[in-house]
Amino acid sequence: MYKVLLVDDEALIREAISENIPWEEMGFELIASCENGREAMERMKEVTPDLLLTDIYMPYVDGIELARYVNENHPDTKTVIISGYDEFDYAKEAIKIGISDYLLKPVTSVTLIDALKKAAETIREEQEHSRLLERYFVNYEKYMEFPDKTDYSGVDRKLIKNFLKTGEIEECAIFIDEYFEAVGKENYMSLLLRQYMTMDIFYCVREFVKAVGVEEAEDSGEWMDLKRLTKAIESAENTIHYLKELFTFALTVRDNNSGDKYGQIIREAKEYIGEHFGNSEFSLNRIAEYIGMSPSYFSSIFKQGTGQTLVEYLTRVRIDKACELLKCTNLRAAEIGEQVGYGDPHYFSATFKKIMGQSPTDFRGGKNMEN
Description:
It is built from 21 helices and five strands. It has helices at residues 11-20, 37-44, 63-73, 88-94, 109-137, 140-143, 157-166, 172-183, 185-188, 191-212, 214-219, 221-224, 226-232, 236-258, 263-276, 284-291, 295-306, 310-328, 333-339, 345-356, 360-365, and strands at residues 2-7, 28-34, 51-55, 78-83, 101-104. It is of the alpha/beta class and 371 residues long. A five-stranded parallel beta sheet has the order 2-1-3-4-5, sandwiched between helices. Helix 2 (37-44) runs parallel beside helix 3, helix 5 (109-137) runs antiparallel to helix 10 and helix 8 (172-183) crosses helix 14. Mean pLDDT is 80; it is low at 135-152 and 214-219. The protein is flat and about 75 Å long.
């Protein structure tokens, strides 16, 4: 059973959740109910839960701080936050810490049960992944040596994810061939290493497919079936053939579900810009590195996908935020410029006027523009 720790400062809520959820029937064990984050931290020193179910506003240690503690000290524990309606933005911010889900109060039993089922499935998959990797690769260095001296330290997940995001379907075969060549023939001919490597690649691809096309991923039993994977690793030839077909399938899902194959990249880029536009040192090189592309290639894709250059889009995001701050705060224009990424107040004013047709001062004063 998966162990659950419940944290809420309201006794009635703790009691209602404790009594109205069929914990054992769902495969859960409610190990404790705590009234604040500090008490929960102390409890987790004794036993690590698989799932933390917590409120946000609590005395001593609130839910955000507790979620951050769990993320850093118990990374395998999943966190579901229960938030009041007026705490929605607060709960949304908590997602960046790594919570699995958030629920808005008042929470019905049906909603909570659905969230618990979702968390249980994630926990099950991750534990299955860990067990399989342990089975296939635990202490592999004890049993084998790599004859060609290849410095193999594990699957390069970043490389694989970058290819899944940006590669062409017709490039799949070449990519797999080159990847195995880099690993070294004498290495991947080892059944033990091949099992580990293929298993890790499989889970990397499965995570990607679910991210871009959940429904199709769930219907694709043939490719997501571990039984097929087990047969594929019986020989190196079968493994290579299987992975070429698996990558082809993944890129097909990507293209069919994204409308265009760069949709996911554009979304990630916009999210990154939304989080970092206030940094005056924000640059094309920095976001391209984050996405995993060369600056020139990323710039081309961004323009193709948005109809704007990165600079045009970034400038619009910054000025829109500046407009909001000018209307909703009493900060000086120079302070607002600094908050949205312009260290030079004169450059901020010039850019603002170029985009909005009037100075920050006139915009704040509500002066009408004359054409």
